[in-house]
Write a structure and sequence with these properties.
heterodimer; A: 3-stranded mixed sheet; 38 helices; elongated; B: 115 residues; mainly alpha
């Protein structure tokens, strides 16, 4: 049982962190009602909780910045030791603030953006569900908890992307995002399991403490590759980047929240979270930073070619995610600090820009940047927010984006491959400057396009978010020391595992990085100027992109469907014998492989120690089996089958199993009756299978039979028999019974028997339902032809006709004998029940004998007579039997014992002496009633047919 | 005797399988019964064979006379026999209904009801 791992020096908080996650889930459930009653202010109301949580998490900033971590757990399933354990350090804190703060703004925004949408309540619900999952992901102290929340974010993002479910494009994009991130999730799960088995724990803190051991472990390489596959798909890294632009089908608030600040950063979070445990090796640095650089360049270039606002932003987000991956891959103090600062800056400006894009769309009805100009005058507030955000994106002082970009240039200048990394970073950033101009500045300046007459400033919910996020970029840039530096420092310290020596400042003096910033800016403006030409040039080479990963995805999806269809066609032909052949063939192959490995070839057949009568009995059974196969007439086959059953019963007698033998004799008799009842009136089957299929089936059958024979010969009986010894020694002392089989059934394993008689009852109910259903459909048919015959009247008719038909069948001798036999058999069955605990007999055999007595009566005198003689309905009897058995078991609970424990008392009967009485005996009475009821309620209605 | 019963068990399985592959629902059900006999015998044989003494304690004793037959497989098989009977009854009723609806004993015709 894995207990919560207590980190040295961590403060324990009680269950507050898990409760924070749970509170958002609860709000998610309540959201539709809130929306219904609060109407237009629902977004504001729902945002209260995320804002409160933002304040709550912000209160930790001081402590976390000074190096403290907090732990918190909620006991979930105490008996299994399953707890929801959370921890809060700098990295979790930064994410928690972004998730709640941006989340609250997005909720308010959504209230305005989707105002009047019929499914707005559901939208709130999905968004909150996502928020809670994302918060859980970043707070989990355990890899398994992290994984569960990881998958929950995939699921809730599927619901959000496909929110506009009436459009096929939205559904396809949602499915694509789910398949790509879900596929990555599978890889991640495998990787986490490998990591857990390598480290011996799933607690992240414990894994971090044994980083050396992990890096030299044999499972390191597969674990890292699988985990990175999960992170790369989630964070839209090349070549899995294609789902992100497609996900722009989602309503804009979703894009702003999931695709800028939160979900796509989950992969980044995972890389950061695990880099103390797994990072630093060549494999890690090489894979992560290379993928990052490729994504950064590809995303920036593709962004430049787009004309749709949201797609521009989506590709630029891919580029930024690439930058983050690249920086985290390099590792080290500077790179980590740069990555965290970039992450914070990006969340602020990209969130703002996405919301602005939504506002423009909402106000003008288009997102095409070729059309959008001159909106500054009519949308002044939005324009200011957009301007600030895009300047931050372009990396201009005094905005926070500038600080982040300067830091990343410092990193490339100090990296081992200075030239390549610096050139790549400058190129990507230059393109992003151009994108920032296209997205945040171009739509607002100049003269207004005459097509945009309806453009107007948006309402408060729609400008509030962009303004706050963009202003934060300004505040953090001008005063980095107040909030941004403690946050970034604490988060970097969490990733590095040690405190940070340097701090964020706006002005570093005239450094090389500043020079690079100037180059970036001028190159960016230049690329904006020649953007038209670039787009044309790219169009000439556009053919390459049809071989891009989107094509692979489509191909893989088509192939998967084709394989599934093919498998279904092969495996599910609709012919029963094909299913049987596949099942038996597989069993035969697996079992014979296993048997050969265990020495089936070295087996010796021991022919000694066979007595004459045993050989005779075996021959009788085999002869009867042969007859069952060969005889033409159905009745003869049924009789031969009965002989097989009696033969098996004789085997039971020979080897000390009188209870089994009795049961087998009775059941075999009833089986033959059942077969005759069902098949007597049916015409003989005329289909004769061809010799080819006969030979084929014979080969399969002999194979199966051979495997079973070898299986029996190879399994040596357990000489220890600890279980049997326990039952044998405790049967009399503990179970007060001398028939050990019966004591096992009604006492030691009473709960199993309870389950078994329940199965019997269900089968009987099934039989009854099958027959009853037919009657109703028949009723409908007759009704439709005009001859309305009620159920009651048809039953009455049956009763009226029955005696004459029956009396012709039954003989005088049978009738007379049965009259005497019925009470005798019932008495005998009662005797079997009574003595069952000490000698062969018991509820099962007794119930069968009693049922057989009534069946015999039924054949002698007919349905009406047996219904008259039977004092109760058999279906009521079997229900009552179940109830009696159950009650006898429950009695133990009142005595403070576990369910089904036998309670015993000595009863003094004058003349006989002390007689032990116990609840297992009552249980056996229940079994007797149930078995009798079941048997009768199967056979009597069938006989009526 | 183990060898002999192993062969009988194998034959019951082989015959059951062969019957289940026939194009007749009647034979299929016969095959099912043969298979369940085979399974019961399998458990019984694998559990260890003891000639003679049943696992019943004589009056005045505390344990059965040695060598006693193992009661555990017996308890398993006893319920298996009765449940097998109930399931067989259900199968037969199902067949009965299928025959009434389709008018055929051929399992290949069962495909038609899917369409």
């Amino acid at each position: 049982m894995e207990r919560f791992f207590e980190l040295d020096g961590a403060q324990v908080l009680g269950p507050s962190l898990p409760l924070a996650i749970a509170s958002i889930f609860v709000l998610a459930i309540a959201a539709p009602w809130v929306n219904r009653f609060a109407g237009r202010s629902a977004g504001w109301l729902l945002a209260i909780l995320p804002f409160c949580l933002t304040a709550y998490f912000a209160s930790f900033t001081g402590a976390v910045a000074s190096g403290e971590t907090f732990q918190s757990e909620l006991i979930w399933v105490p008996t299994l030791g399953v707890n929801l354990s959370c921890s809060l350090d700098g990295l979790s804190l930064l994410f928690a603030l972004l998730i709640n703060g941006v989340g609250g703004l997005v909720l308010i925004y959504a209230g305005g953006y989707l105002e009047g949408h019929p499914l707005l309540g559901r939208f709130y619900s999905f968004l909150l569900m996502f928020m809670a999952s994302m918060l859980g992901l970043v707070l989990s102290a355990n890899l398994l908890g992290l994984f569960v929340f990881w998958e929950l974010t995939s699921l809730s993002s599927y619901l959000l992307i496909g929110f506009d479910q009436s459009r096929p494009q939205a559904r396809a994009s949602a499915l694509q995002a789910l398949l790509v991130t879900g596929g990555g999730g599978l890889a991640l799960m495998a990787g986490l399991l490998l990591l857990g088995s390598a480290g011996g724990s799933f607690e992240i803190a414990l894994l971090q403490s044994q980083a050396e051991h992990l890096r030299s472990h044999a499972l390191y390489v597969p674990a890292v590759l699988l985990i990175l596959a999960g992170a790369f798909t989630k964070s839209a890294q090349f070549p899995f980047h294609f789902w992100l632009p497609a996900a722009m089908e989602a309503p804009t608030p979703v894009s702003a929240y999931l695709h800028s600040a939160t979900m796509v950063k989950a992969g980044i979070y995972l890389i950061a979270r695990l880099s103390p445990a797994l990072g630093g090796t060549d494999l890690w640095i090489g894979t992560v930073s290379t993928v990052g650089v490729c994504t950064m360049l590809l995303g920036a270039w593709l962004a430049l070619l787009q004309t749709d606002l949201k797609r521009l932003l989506a590709y630029s987000t891919i580029s930024s995610l690439g930058t983050l991956t690249f920086l985290l891959g390099l590792g080290g103090e500077l790179a980590t600090q740069a990555a965290i600062a970039f992450l914070l800056g990006h969340a602020l400006y990209k969130g703002a820009l996405f919301l602005v894009a939504g506002s423009i769309d909402h106000s003008t009805g288009t997102r095409d940047v070729r059309v959008l100009t001159g909106l500054g005058k009519v949308m002044p507030i939005t324009a200011i927010a957009a301007g600030l955000a895009s300047l931050s994106m372009a990396g201009l002082p005094p905005l926070f984006g500038f600080i982040a970009k300067e830091l990343s240039y410092e990193v490339t200048l100090h990296s081992s491959a200075v030239l390549i990394t610096t050139a790549a970073a400058v190129t990507a950033n230059a393109f992003l400057v151009a994108v920032a101009i296209v997205v945040g500045l171009r739509p607002f300046w100049g003269s207004r396009n005459p097509d945009l007459q309806e453009a107007h400033e948006v309402t408060t919910p729609l400008w509030l978010g962009p303004v706050i996020l963009a202003s934060l970029g300004l505040v953090f840039g001008v005063f980095p020391q107040f909030i941004a530096d403690p946050l970034v420092g604490a988060a970097s310290a969490a990733v590095l595992g040690r405190d940070l020596s340097s701090h964020l400042t706006l002005w570093h003096g005239f450094t090389t990085a500043l020079g690079l910033s100037l180059i970036t800016l001028s190159a960016g403006i230049a690329s904006f100027a020649i953007r038209g030409w670039l787009v044309k040039a790219a169009a000439r080479w556009g053919g390459i992109f049809q071989w891009g990963p989107t094509r692979w995805y489509d191909w893989a999806l088509t192939a998967l469907n084709a394989v599934a269809l093919g498998m279904t066609r092969v495996l599910q032909s609709g012919y029963l014998r094909h299913y049987l052949m596949i099942t038996l063939g597989t069993m035969f192959a697996l079992a014979s492989y296993s048997l050969l490995r265990h020495g089936a070839l070295t087996i010796t057949f021991d022919w000694s120690d066979i007595r004459f009568y045993e050989a005779g009995l075996a021959a009788l059974i085999l002869f009867a089996v042969f007859a069952v196969i060969m005889v033409k007439s159905r009745l003869s086959a049924i009789m031969a089958l009965g002989v097989v059953g009696y033969g098996v019963a004789l085997v039971f007698i020979m080897y000390g199993a009188p209870d089994l033998a009795m049961t087998q004799f009775l059941v075999e008799t009833l089986t033959v009756i059942l077969f005759v009842l069902v098949f007597f009136h049916l015409p003989e089957s005329t289909i004769v299978s061809g010799s080819v299929s006969r030979v084929r089936d014979m080969i399969i059958s002999v194979g199966v039979g051979g495997v079973m024979t070898f299986f029996v010969l190879l399994s040596t009986p357990d000489s220890q028999k600890a279980l049997s010894d326990y039952f044998v020694t405790n049967s009399k002392s503990g179970g007060h019974g001398q028939n050990i089989v019966n004591v096992i059934l009604v006492d030691f394993r009473g709960l199993d028997t309870m389950g078994e008689i329940t199965v019997l009852t269900i089968a009987a109910v099934g039989v009854y339902a099958l027959l009853k259903l037919r009657r109703r459909s028949e009723l409908v048919e007759t009704g439709s032809t005009g001859e309305t015959i009620g159920l009651v009247t048809s039953a009455q008719l049956a009763i009226k006709e029955e005696p004459t038909a029956e009396s012709q069948m039954s003989s005088m001798i049978l009738c007379t004998a049965t009259r005497f036999l019925l009470p005798l058999l019932l008495l005998f069955s009662f005797f079997l029940l009574m003595r069952g605990h000490n000698e062969p007999g018991g509820g099962f055999t007794g119930g069968l004998v009693a049922a057989a007595a009534f069946v015999l009566y039924r054949f002698a005198f007919g349905v009406a007579e047996v219904n008259r003689v039977l004092p109760f309905d058999p279906r009521v009897l079997m229900g009552a039997g179940l109830l009696v058995a159950l009650c006898s078991g429950v009695l133990a609970l009142f005595a403070g014992q576990p369910l089904m424990t036998g309670l015993w008392n000595e009863l003094h009967i004058p003349g006989v002496g002390e007689v032990p009485l116990g609840t297992p005996l009552i249980f056996d009475v229940g079994v007797y009633m149930a078995v009798m009821g079941v048997t009768l309620s199967i056979i009597l209605p069938l006989a009526e047919e | 005797m183990l060898t002999l019963l192993a062969i009988v068990t194998g034959c019951l399985y082989a015959a059951g399988t062969y019957m289940m592959l026939r194009r007749s629902l009647f034979k299929l059900i016969l095959g099912l019964v043969l298979l369940s006999h085979g399974a019961n015998l399998l458990i019984f044989t694998v559990g260890g064979l003891t000639r003679g003494h049943a696992p019943v304690i004589d009056a005045g004793e505390d344990v059965p006379t040695s060598p006693w037959a193992d009661p555990v497989p017996q308890a398993l098989i006893l319920t298996a026999i009765v449940i097998g009977f109930a399931v067989l009854a259900f199968t037969l009723t199902l067949f009965h209904r299928a025959y009434q609806t389709l008018g055929s004993d051929d399992p290949d015709d069962l495909k038609l009801s899917d369409q």
